[in-house]
Design brief:
Radius of gyration: 18 Å
Strand content: 25-35%
Order of helices and strands: HEEEEEEEHEEE
Structural class: mainly beta
Helix content: 10-25%
Number of strands: 10
Shape: globular
Length: 188
């Protein structure tokens, strides 16, 4: 009887242990792929929070694609994993106003992330742009990375880890940079 109860508990925990909201990558099987996303304020480089998306299948390489509707007045942007089609981020963009994130609805607060004693080195970022007309000006992302380099959730990074960075600008036209934030996408 005790053995049956113990087996039932273990079975239930194995299903609960790897939910989409669980940010501890070390407890999940190696045959899963997750995309961790962290938000960092554009003007202050303050960590705003983060989330993860569990992909429906394991992927070896990580490539992102974009759906973008230019804001004549109202527009939007969404980023997806190219292989699985999984949505990783979406938000509205308003000309002479302020859009908002629409996916995910909520992110985990900065206080919910455990800290490391030793910082993790910055990976080589691949900048993302929603327009083919954007030219990379050689942005230095170190101060952005500094906001999350002590998080337990980045402790697994290696020099070959795939890392993308995108500047979400929900306000354009006479946009306010105080509304903008960086999104860092990391494949686990």
């Amino acid at each position: 009887m005790k053995t049956k109860i113990f087996c039932c508990i273990i079975t239930v925990l194995s299903f609960v242990g790897c939910s989409n909201n669980d940010l501890a990558p070390t407890i999940c099987p190696n045959d899963e792929s997750r995309i961790f996303t962290f938000a960092v304020d554009y003007t202050t480089n303050k960590f705003l929070g983060g989330y993860q998306v569990l992909l429906p299948q394991y992927i070896d390489t990580f490539e992102m694609i974009c759906e973008y509707n230019s804001p004549g007045d109202f527009g939007d942007v969404a980023w997806f994993d190219k292989t699985t089609g999984s949505k990783l981020f979406a938000g509205t963009i308003i000309w002479m106003g302020k859009g908002e994130r629409t996916f995910p609805e909520k992110i985990q607060s900065p206080s919910s992330f455990e800290k490391l004693k030793t910082p993790i080195s910055m990976p080589a970022f691949i900048p993302l742009y929603h327009s083919e007309y954007h030219v990379d000006t050689g942005t230095d992302y170190q101060s952005t990375w500094d906001a999350i380099k002590y998080l337990q959730e980045v402790s697994w990074l290696t020099s070959s880890s795939q890392a993308y960075i995108y500047l979400y600008q929900p306000s354009v036209g006479v946009g306010d940079p105080a509304d903008w934030y960086w999104l860092i996408f990391l494949k686990y």
